[in-house]
Amino acid sequence: MSGQVAEKAPDPAAEGQADGGGTADSEQPAQEPWAARRDLDAHAPKFDFRGVNRGVAAQHVIGDIITGGKVEHHYTFGGFRNEPVAGEIPAETLERLAEDFVPEGTVFEELLERLRHERVIVLMGNPFSGRRTAALMLLHRLGALPVRALDRDVPPSELSLRLASGDGAVGHVLLDLEISREQPLREAHLLALRGRMRERGAYLVITTEVSPYVESTVALATWRPPEPAAVLAALLPKRTGADRARELLVLPAVAEFLSRERQIREVVRYVAVLAEEDRERIEQYSLRALEQQVQEWFEEAETPVQLREKAFLIALAAFDKGPYALTAELSDTLYKALRSTGDDTYQKPIPVFGTHIGKRLQKARAHRYPADETTEWGPVTQVKAAFHDERVAPMVLREVWTGHPAARPALIKWLNGLAVDGRPFVRTRAAAAVAVLALTDLPSAMALIVEPWAGAKESRRQLTAVSTLALAHRIGAPNIPRIVDVWSTSVQDPKRCWVGVRALGLIGPERPAEALDALRAQARHQYDKKQAQGRVGAGDEQVADELPQSVALLLLSEATDAAVTTLLPQLGGHPSAQALALDGFLTACERQDADWCPPMLDTTARSAVASSAVSRFLRAALNDRRTNERAEDVLRQWLRAADRNPATERALSELLPLLVAGQRDAARLVHLLDTLQGPDGGPRPAVAERMHTALTRPLAHT
């Protein structure tokens, strides 16, 4: 099903398990289908694809883009990019910045007084928070003109020595000072700078990010930007007039834009977009700004530290809203794979300690929060990490897969490791990540990842392939039902067939008739194969065992009525079809919830269609020599559950009379009630006597 893709799929069995954690064990028993559906519901991310392109290669949004014959302009706030600058800043640049600067809601006035008194301040703030513009505006408002920009590559210890005398500058700004372990910022450096500034009657503002390499005695000044709504309200009237600005600011698209975490540069660009009054661009800007951010993350130079943070971004995209510690742990396994791309001998150790969690999440535009995580032992409180904007996760995965194909081998190696991890959460999120790749590029995702998983010897890889297909279909990837139908009816590849059969039970509820047709076709194939070989054990036993499990999943889904209606005619059909119907039905009946309410019995209280079908299936199973003992065991299980749950007792008391079509049926049920034992061979439950009464009422009319 991978089309004509010529890419060679890696051998999943050859991938080292250390790449993802957990234990690769080809003898690991397959997870039972109920647990698989539970894990999908509990651990699958709620991806937000609103407005996100599907099946399209990564766009280039930096610079001008021509879309539908229109040129889209992107602006840089403040007139500065990230390259170092040195020399006098033009007066017209400062005037332009002053015209649009918005100090409302900030500590700008406090910083102004502090600069006037101290002569030198270190302005610390997040990237793209407007800290550089704030630094220039402090000098401009103070009248410290002209302003000279200093080279940021100068070590802090040499700053005072590099300030040339007699250059005529009164204001000095050092933008984005690099502070590191080798070049820390100490109080002595600032004291020397202040002395030099006082000698010259000048002022200096230094901007920097949060850093652990600033001496504790250095009194930093913290910059926090104004609220995005305040910036829009202040700048837009200057472009459009007050009346038109008020009309634009109440547009739903503007409210949606402001509802998410925003950088000042994005807000300023949005002012220009709003001023153009192009409704399409106004509505699309939020998404386009997000795409630009994602592309910028992966276009930066690949220094070792930055590559490690790129790996964290990818891992966070896969494990968004998951535990931070797990995300960080698995991001380093991806970092290892990325770092060795093109050089298998790269053996340098991964640093044990890296970026502080707060700074790492701030760069990723994410946050941490405590929340309960669902585990097989119950909920456990964890510190989780999530992007501020829920649309980022699928966008990051799409950008890496389609925009940076050289990363694919490392990404596939990482995902292969996650697919056999011992933690259901990890395996489910690996499946969800590949589902996004399938939505973006189905042929490559199938050929390089899903098909090798489906044919792997490890059951966990096969199960992750099942989850991938189910989640890919859930998020709208194309052609998944066709793939599953073809695989589930395959007569040549038992492993892939098993994956297809299991997947039918998970995606089948929206098309139960088609799913049951495919299952019935495979059941007929297994029957014919056994008949041809003349022995009971012939055929593909793993596939044959899975068929009734998928039928049971369909019966216990939201499509119960449609499923039982499709199955009922098979009771008198071909032996393989009748066996599949009865085995699937009894498998569903054997399922019991923790509150002693068998789900199959519960359907009889909610649906007249299900009630009639359940009674007919049970009568058929009780009168079939192959299944009668199993059907009686189901009734015993339901009776013991009824002894503990009044709702189950009511449903069973309504059902039992429907099982009586004659004296033989009545005698069988009376004997079953008389001989019923409690759990572990205990005394006969009291509910058995009450069920006698339920049986005798309709017998009077028989």
Write the layout of secondary structure elements.
Blueprint: H1 33-43, E1 65-67, E2 70-72, E3 87-88, H2 91-100, H3 108-118, E4 120-124, H4 131-142, E5 147-149, H5 159-162, E6 171-174, H6 187-200, E7 203-208, E8 221-222, H7 228-240, H8 242-249, H9 252-258, H10 264-276, H11 279-297, H12 304-318, E9 322-323, H13 324-339, H14 357-363, E10 366-375, E11 378-387, H15 392-403, H16 408-418, H17 424-440, H18 442-454, H19 459-474, H20 480-488, H21 494-507, H22 512-533, H23 541-555, H24 560-567, H25 575-589, H26 599-606, H27 608-622, H28 628-642, H29 646-655, H30 663-674, H31 687-699
Parallel strand pairs: 4-7, 4-8, 5-6, 6-7
Antiparallel strand pairs: 1-2, 3-5, 9-11, 10-11
In brief, what are we looking at here?
With 702 residues, the chain is α/β, with parallel strands linked by helices. Among the domains are: 1-55 and 299-478, no CATH class; 79-222, Rossmann fold (3-Layer(aba) Sandwich), CATH 3.40.50; 228-297. The chain contains 31 helices and 11 strands.
